[in-house]
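Researcher: Quick test of sequence recovery. C-alpha coordinates follow.
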Protein backbone atom coordinates (compact mmCIF):
# COMPACT_ATOMS: atom_id res chain seq x y z
CA UNK A 1 0.00 0.00 0.00
CA UNK A 2 1.43 3.34 -1.10
CA UNK A 3 -0.29 6.49 0.11
CA UNK A 4 0.25 10.22 0.18
CA UNK A 5 -1.61 11.44 3.25
CA UNK A 6 -2.46 15.14 3.18
CA UNK A 7 -3.01 17.37 6.20
CA UNK A 8 -5.92 19.76 6.78
CA UNK A 9 -6.52 21.65 3.50
CA UNK A 10 -9.21 24.08 4.71
CA UNK A 11 -10.08 25.36 1.25
CA UNK A 12 -6.48 26.00 0.13
CA UNK A 13 -7.02 24.49 -3.31
CA UNK A 14 -3.97 26.03 -4.99
CA UNK A 15 -1.65 24.63 -2.34
CA UNK A 16 -3.37 21.25 -2.59
CA UNK A 17 -2.88 21.16 -6.35
CA UNK A 18 0.75 22.28 -6.08
CA UNK A 19 1.45 19.64 -3.44
CA UNK A 20 0.00 16.82 -5.54
CA UNK A 21 2.03 17.96 -8.53
CA UNK A 22 5.17 17.82 -6.39
CA UNK A 23 4.18 14.31 -5.37
CA UNK A 24 4.04 13.26 -9.02
CA UNK A 25 0.28 13.31 -9.64
CA UNK A 26 -1.09 14.17 -13.08
CA UNK A 27 -4.11 16.49 -13.39
CA UNK A 28 -4.80 15.71 -17.06
CA UNK A 29 -8.29 14.41 -16.28
CA UNK A 30 -9.08 17.35 -14.00
CA UNK A 31 -8.16 15.55 -10.79
CA UNK A 32 -4.89 14.07 -9.48
CA UNK A 33 -3.90 10.56 -10.58
CA UNK A 34 -0.53 9.00 -9.85
CA UNK A 35 1.21 6.98 -12.60
CA UNK A 36 2.50 4.44 -10.06
CA UNK A 37 -0.92 3.66 -8.51
CA UNK A 38 -0.22 5.64 -5.34
CA UNK A 39 -3.40 6.91 -3.69
CA UNK A 40 -4.17 10.06 -1.79
CA UNK A 41 -5.60 10.09 1.73
CA UNK A 42 -7.06 12.98 3.69
CA UNK A 43 -7.14 13.59 7.44
CA UNK A 44 -10.32 15.69 7.14
CA UNK A 45 -11.16 19.38 7.33
CA UNK A 46 -11.23 19.92 3.59
CA UNK A 47 -13.17 23.17 3.93
CA UNK A 48 -13.61 26.47 5.78
CA UNK A 49 -11.43 29.58 6.14
CA UNK A 50 -9.62 29.15 2.81
CA UNK A 51 -10.70 30.62 -0.55
CA UNK A 52 -11.81 27.54 -2.52
CA UNK A 53 -13.44 25.06 -0.17
CA UNK A 54 -16.06 23.78 -2.58
CA UNK A 55 -13.49 23.10 -5.30
CA UNK A 56 -11.55 20.97 -2.81
CA UNK A 57 -14.68 18.98 -1.96
CA UNK A 58 -15.44 18.41 -5.65
CA UNK A 59 -12.01 16.89 -6.26
CA UNK A 60 -12.09 14.70 -3.15
CA UNK A 61 -15.62 13.49 -3.95
CA UNK A 62 -14.45 12.48 -7.42
CA UNK A 63 -11.32 10.71 -6.16
CA UNK A 64 -13.19 8.73 -3.49
CA UNK A 65 -15.92 7.79 -5.98
CA UNK A 66 -13.24 6.46 -8.35
CA UNK A 67 -11.53 4.58 -5.46
CA UNK A 68 -8.43 6.74 -5.88
CA UNK A 69 -8.38 8.15 -2.35
CA UNK A 70 -9.26 7.60 1.30
CA UNK A 71 -11.08 10.27 3.28
CA UNK A 72 -11.96 10.58 6.94
CA UNK A 73 -14.07 13.50 8.19
CA UNK A 74 -12.93 16.24 10.53
CA UNK A 75 -14.95 18.49 12.80
CA UNK A 76 -15.33 21.10 10.04
CA UNK A 77 -16.54 18.35 7.69
CA UNK A 78 -19.11 17.35 10.29
CA UNK A 79 -20.32 20.94 10.66
CA UNK A 80 -20.65 21.44 6.90
CA UNK A 81 -22.64 18.20 6.69
CA UNK A 82 -25.02 19.47 9.38
CA UNK A 83 -25.28 22.78 7.48
CA UNK A 84 -26.27 20.88 4.33
CA UNK A 85 -28.82 18.90 6.35
CA UNK A 86 -30.48 22.20 7.17
CA UNK A 87 -29.62 22.08 10.86
CA UNK A 88 -29.10 25.31 12.77
CA UNK A 89 -25.33 25.70 12.89
CA UNK A 90 -23.40 28.85 13.65
CA UNK A 91 -21.69 30.36 10.63
CA UNK A 92 -18.46 30.86 12.56
CA UNK A 93 -14.91 29.44 12.77
CA UNK A 94 -14.62 29.37 9.00
CA UNK A 95 -17.94 27.87 7.94
CA UNK A 96 -19.05 31.37 6.92
CA UNK A 97 -16.51 31.31 4.05
CA UNK A 98 -17.79 27.98 2.71
CA UNK A 99 -21.42 29.06 3.13
CA UNK A 100 -20.67 32.27 1.22
CA UNK A 101 -19.17 30.27 -1.66
CA UNK A 102 -22.22 28.00 -1.64
CA UNK A 103 -24.70 30.89 -1.58
CA UNK A 104 -23.10 32.40 -4.69
CA UNK A 105 -23.84 29.29 -6.79
CA UNK A 106 -26.82 28.73 -9.05
CA UNK A 107 -29.42 26.22 -7.86
CA UNK A 108 -28.21 23.38 -10.07
CA UNK A 109 -24.63 23.73 -8.84
CA UNK A 110 -25.82 23.95 -5.26
CA UNK A 111 -27.76 20.71 -5.65
CA UNK A 112 -24.76 18.87 -7.14
CA UNK A 113 -22.26 20.12 -4.55
CA UNK A 114 -24.59 19.35 -1.66
CA UNK A 115 -25.57 15.88 -2.92
CA UNK A 116 -21.98 14.79 -3.64
CA UNK A 117 -20.60 16.11 -0.37
CA UNK A 118 -23.33 14.51 1.72
CA UNK A 119 -22.70 11.18 -0.01
CA UNK A 120 -18.96 11.52 0.65
CA UNK A 121 -19.57 12.24 4.33
CA UNK A 122 -22.20 9.55 4.85
CA UNK A 123 -20.04 6.86 3.27
CA UNK A 124 -16.86 7.85 5.10
CA UNK A 125 -15.43 5.83 7.96
CA UNK A 126 -14.98 7.75 11.21
CA UNK A 127 -11.32 6.71 10.91
CA UNK A 128 -9.45 4.39 8.55
CA UNK A 129 -7.50 1.31 9.67
CA UNK A 130 -5.26 0.41 6.74
CA UNK A 131 -2.38 -1.85 5.70
CA UNK A 132 -3.42 -4.77 7.92
CA UNK A 133 -3.72 -2.52 10.95
CA UNK A 134 -0.28 -0.94 10.61
CA UNK A 135 -1.73 2.50 9.81
CA UNK A 136 -4.64 4.47 11.26
CA UNK A 137 -5.81 7.81 9.84
CA UNK A 138 -8.02 9.78 12.22
CA UNK A 139 -8.73 13.50 12.09
CA UNK A 140 -7.72 14.53 15.62
CA UNK A 141 -6.05 11.24 16.47
CA UNK A 142 -7.26 8.19 18.37
CA UNK A 143 -6.34 6.39 21.56
CA UNK A 144 -5.01 2.85 21.22
CA UNK A 145 -7.93 1.35 23.17
CA UNK A 146 -10.44 3.17 20.93
CA UNK A 147 -9.24 1.57 17.69
CA UNK A 148 -12.05 -0.71 16.52
CA UNK A 149 -14.70 1.19 18.50
CA UNK A 150 -17.26 3.65 17.10
CA UNK A 151 -19.18 4.97 20.11
CA UNK A 152 -20.23 8.59 20.58
CA UNK A 153 -17.27 9.01 22.95
CA UNK A 154 -14.86 7.77 20.28
CA UNK A 155 -16.46 10.00 17.65
CA UNK A 156 -15.96 13.07 19.86
CA UNK A 157 -12.31 12.14 20.41
CA UNK A 158 -11.63 11.52 16.70
CA UNK A 159 -13.31 14.77 15.59
CA UNK A 160 -12.20 17.13 18.36
CA UNK A 161 -9.29 15.52 20.18
CA UNK A 162 -8.98 14.67 23.87
CA UNK A 163 -11.00 17.63 25.10
CA UNK A 164 -11.56 18.31 28.80
CA UNK A 165 -14.77 20.33 28.46
CA UNK A 166 -12.96 23.49 29.57
CA UNK A 167 -12.18 26.51 27.40
CA UNK A 168 -8.97 28.46 26.80
CA UNK A 169 -9.10 32.28 27.10
CA UNK A 170 -9.59 32.52 23.32
CA UNK A 171 -12.62 30.25 23.48
CA UNK A 172 -10.90 27.19 22.02
CA UNK A 173 -11.31 23.87 23.88
CA UNK A 174 -8.66 22.70 26.32
CA UNK A 175 -7.15 19.46 24.97
CA UNK A 176 -5.01 16.84 26.65
CA UNK A 177 -1.86 15.74 24.82
CA UNK A 178 -3.06 12.19 24.06
CA UNK A 179 -0.06 11.42 21.83
CA UNK A 180 2.29 11.42 24.83
CA UNK A 181 0.36 8.47 26.29
CA UNK A 182 0.11 6.50 23.02
CA UNK A 183 1.99 3.19 23.11
CA UNK A 184 0.46 1.33 20.15
CA UNK A 185 2.26 -0.36 17.27
CA UNK A 186 0.04 1.19 14.61
CA UNK A 187 1.18 4.47 13.08
CA UNK A 188 -1.43 7.15 13.79
CA UNK A 189 -1.61 9.97 11.23
CA UNK A 190 -3.79 12.93 12.14
CA UNK A 191 -4.23 16.68 11.94
CA UNK A 192 -6.72 19.08 13.57
CA UNK A 193 -4.20 21.01 15.70
CA UNK A 194 -1.97 23.31 13.62
CA UNK A 195 1.78 22.90 14.22
CA UNK A 196 4.59 24.69 12.41
CA UNK A 197 6.45 21.43 11.77
CA UNK A 198 5.19 17.84 11.66
CA UNK A 199 4.97 16.61 15.25
CA UNK A 200 6.16 13.04 15.79
CA UNK A 201 5.45 11.51 19.21
CA UNK A 202 5.27 7.80 20.06
CA UNK A 203 4.41 6.57 16.55
CA UNK A 204 1.91 9.41 16.00
CA UNK A 205 2.26 12.03 13.28
CA UNK A 206 0.43 15.37 13.33
CA UNK A 207 0.63 16.61 9.72
CA UNK A 208 -1.61 19.70 10.04
CA UNK A 209 1.06 22.31 9.37
CA UNK A 210 -1.43 25.17 9.18
CA UNK A 211 -1.81 25.83 5.46
CA UNK A 212 -4.80 28.08 6.00
CA UNK A 213 -2.90 30.04 8.66
CA UNK A 214 -0.03 30.92 6.35
CA UNK A 215 2.50 28.16 7.07
CA UNK A 216 2.47 25.17 4.70
CA UNK A 217 0.48 22.18 3.46
CA UNK A 218 2.15 18.85 4.16
CA UNK A 219 1.84 15.30 2.89
CA UNK A 220 3.24 12.17 4.52
CA UNK A 221 4.40 9.55 2.04
CA UNK A 222 3.57 6.08 3.34
CA UNK A 223 5.28 3.63 3.80
CA UNK A 224 8.38 5.72 3.09
CA UNK A 225 7.55 8.03 6.03
CA UNK A 226 8.85 11.04 4.12
CA UNK A 227 7.33 14.52 4.20
CA UNK A 228 6.63 16.82 1.27
CA UNK A 229 5.37 20.37 1.86
CA UNK A 230 4.43 23.47 -0.13
CA UNK A 231 4.32 27.00 1.27
CA UNK A 232 0.99 28.66 1.91
CA UNK A 233 -0.19 31.78 0.10
CA UNK A 234 -2.32 32.79 3.08
CA UNK A 235 -1.36 35.42 5.70
CA UNK A 236 0.63 33.98 8.61
CA UNK A 237 -1.29 33.88 11.93
CA UNK A 238 1.15 33.05 14.72
CA UNK A 239 -1.42 32.56 17.48
CA UNK A 240 -3.13 29.69 15.66
CA UNK A 241 -0.17 27.36 16.17
CA UNK A 242 -0.09 25.23 19.28
CA UNK A 243 3.07 25.16 21.38
CA UNK A 244 3.85 21.93 23.18
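Model:
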Amino acid sequence: MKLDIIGDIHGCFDEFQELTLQLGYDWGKGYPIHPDTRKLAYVGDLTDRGPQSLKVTEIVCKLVKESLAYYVPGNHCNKLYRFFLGNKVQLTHGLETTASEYDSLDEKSKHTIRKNYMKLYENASLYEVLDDGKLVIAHAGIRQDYIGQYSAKVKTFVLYGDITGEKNPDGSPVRRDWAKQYRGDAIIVYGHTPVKEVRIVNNTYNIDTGAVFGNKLTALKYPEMEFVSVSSSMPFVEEKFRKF
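The first strand starts at residue 3 and ends at 6.
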